[in-house]
Amino acid sequence: MSSTTDVRTRILLAARSEFAAYGLAGARIDRIAKAASASKERLYAHFVDKAALFQAVLDVNAIEFHEGTALDPTDVPAFVGLVFDHTHEHPEILRMLTWARLEGIDYDLPGHWPAPDAKVTALREAQELGLVDSSWAPEELLPILFGVAQAWAQAPLVAQLNAQDTPRAAHRSSAVEAARRILRPKG
User: Fold this and answer.
1) Cα(121)–Cα(127) distance, rounded to whole angstroms?
2) In a domain, 168, yes or no
3) Exposed / middle / buried, residue 141 (Cβ in 10 Å: 0-12, 13-18, 19+)
4) Range of the domain at 167
5) Each residue's pLDDT tens digit in the chain (187 positions)?
6) What CATH number has the domain bearing residue 96?
7) Structural domain count of the chain
8) Is residue 27 assigned to a domain?
């Protein structure tokens, strides 16, 4: 007999795949339940509705992402490499965030999760160390770094076709180098 945690985990994993493929509006609870080897009743015992399940998956995705992408103030460009790697290894997370934006879902990390604040703090520390241009507001710089790291995953089809023969490692190196140039202190 499965424990409650096992059932919940199976539901979250099945929901991640379903929501990444179809978004909140297109996802179907019956497909999620079937993929999780759980009844719809068990699913609803854990999550009050489809929107709550979507939110729970976003929360799990965010926690996994932020745990896997530490920002070391002594090597901020390496953070861009970590985000690049995570984006390419877990494309379903970016797809879910895209669906959330398309469907008008305002998403914030769970209140107890300090990861983005820690990343902003690390950027401030990097500035204090003289490793990052201090003219950037760290709160503005962080999304720019995400954009650079995710550029290849978000690039329009033409850009991807023009670089289809380029190894992923070269794309990663380009993203890290772009970050290095953006971050370079003026002087």
Assistant:
1) 10
2) yes
3) buried
4) 51-183
5) 456 679 999 999 999 999 999 999 999 999 999 999 999 999 999 999 999 999 999 988 888 888 888 899 999 999 999 999 999 999 988 888 888 888 888 776 665 555 668 899 999 999 999 999 999 999 999 999 999 999 988 876 655 566 667 788 888 999 999 999 999 988 6
6) 1.10.357.10
7) 1
8) no
